[in-house]
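Chapter review: from sequence to fold.
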Amino acid sequence: MGDKHGIRDASEHYLDGFARTLSEVSATGRRLTREELKTRRTLGEQAAEAGHGLRALIVAHLAATRATWPAVPGSAESSLATLAAVEQAIDAFAEGYERAQRLSVRREEAARREFIDDLLYGRSDLGRLVERAERFGLHLSRAHAVAVAEGPSAYVESGPVARRVEAAVLARFDSRSILLTTKNGRLLCIAPGDEDEILLHFAKQAYAATGGDGAALRVAIGRPQHGAGGVVQSYEEALAALEMAARLNLPGPVLRAADLLVYPVLARDRQALVDLVTHTLAPLTKARGGVVPLLDTLGAYFDSGCVAAEAARRLSLSVRALTYRLERIHTLTGADPADPAHRYMLQTAVIGARLLDWPNQPL
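The token string follows.
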């Protein structure tokens, strides 16, 4: 009963002056004044800011119209003028209500974007960041992992692709513990670190949103990390994995930073990597067709698990042609790709060449 009284009291506040205006309109046939319309817009804004539902308030306006109607003179002109006034009043009220809602949404979006920027760049006071995180469903005391999707075109925060992926993920998992957003044209999913299925489902939906074109999409998943700084670390790991995949042409569509840790280790000591590539692969420059075909041959051979038939298929060569290339590599370098004793050195050198973009870039 108390709730009904509360609703009625709220309605009466936002109907202030409405019945009196209708009585005047019915008696004179005038239209609402500019000031009266402004008042109705203001009341609509106040109702939205107070969290009242628009539907209930429109019903209250119509109920007030019905209650006033018996006092209206019976002429058709008077009835039409009153109906026009009701239409004007409700339209102005709804306009103010919707304007306040749009402003509220824009403020919320700006606050969300500011929080995401602060979170992913490690800015802001840690205590305040934790408080703001809870507002958006993240509890930074627990571990989180970040998945980053990079598609054929930039993702837009409110774009149809981002909305489709977000709807699919949130329809299946608890939205209170997941944050989906965009950053620098990429689509991000931040989820609890012990719920790997969320990030895999995100990757699946991002893949589906590209039309199933795996060649046009890569999704990298950072390792679970604790605390606010852990989100940044997992995000940066995912970005590094995407960069590494692009440089090494790693197969996708899903890449895990945990599986790629060897590559940053190799890249960390550039001079050692240059020495390895120079010592191991530089002799291939003496080949008649140049170094690139032989490098591609080694890459395909190692990527196919040292299965000659599969490597030949990937290169559109006959097995005999592939075998000839491997023998030529053995002759020039002194290292046999088929020999386990030589294989690791050759494979590491090929990875190093990709990391250094050799021979496109001089060592």
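Two observations follow directly from the output. The chain has 15 helices and six strands. The first helix runs from residue 2 to 14.
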